[in-house]
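Field guide to reading this record: the first block holds the primary sequence, the second block holds the structure written as discrete tokens, and the final block holds curator observations. Each block starts with its own label. This record concerns SAM-dependent methyltransferase, catalogued under organism Rhizobium ruizarguesonis.

BLOCK 1 — SEQUENCE
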Amino acid sequence: MNSINTNYSIRDEIRDFWSERAATFDNSVGHEIFSEAERKGWQRLIRKHLGEGQGRAALDLACGTAVISHLMHDVGFAVTGLDWSDAMLAQARAKAKKRGTDIRFVSGDAENTMEPKNSYDVITNRHLVWTLVDPASAFKEWFSVLKPGGKVLILDGNMGRETWVKGPQKFWTKVTGKPPASHMSPEMMARHQKIRSRVHFSNQMPAEAVVDLLRQAGFTDIVIDRKLADIHWAQARKMPFLRGLERMVQDRFAICARRPG
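BLOCK 2 — STRUCTURE
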């Protein structure tokens, strides 16, 4: 991992990147939910690993526009959504107001939440871990914020690993002169790659590497769940063909781990 000695840190760059994407974030499949089938798939996954909420306290880290926060709320959790981007939080609060939900939103860094120790029954996050500069320290922070016996549910994937679909995508670009469909402009894609080159998981992020860091932080009963086909199929049906095909074959996973107690 590289570092630079300026007042504008990689963490600032990550925050500003996602702030600029906030206004259009929910337009993309895989961010917001566009079918009841996908919604039910996510709810199935949450219940499978965390059970029914029953009013238990949940902290949704890097909540963005609160997609996962609302899913957690739907299954009965008392949800706090935390994000470092004010622009994302503005979108999240507007969505919660429109839907009439009582989700609490706070500004904060997922690597240093400033939330009280031993205060949450569960922690969730989606597409966060790859952005962490120091995941080992972040996981220790999450461990401390959870109550004894609490669980963390990580929803992510090894996005740095190219799939066989890249071949047809490159062929399509060569034949048509058109790049593969993307929810980011070339400029934003370049910024995305620049950020990725400087975080901890700068290349690939295999689930097993995340598990090792969780174990080092003290978590136990760690489970890797790759049975997400219902979610990915629902998403793929809303995507251009090659992007949908790639979604179906990517190494995306859920990781659930428990704080002993």
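BLOCK 3 — OBSERVATIONS
The mean pLDDT is 92.
Residues 59 and 129 are 15 Å apart (CA to CA).
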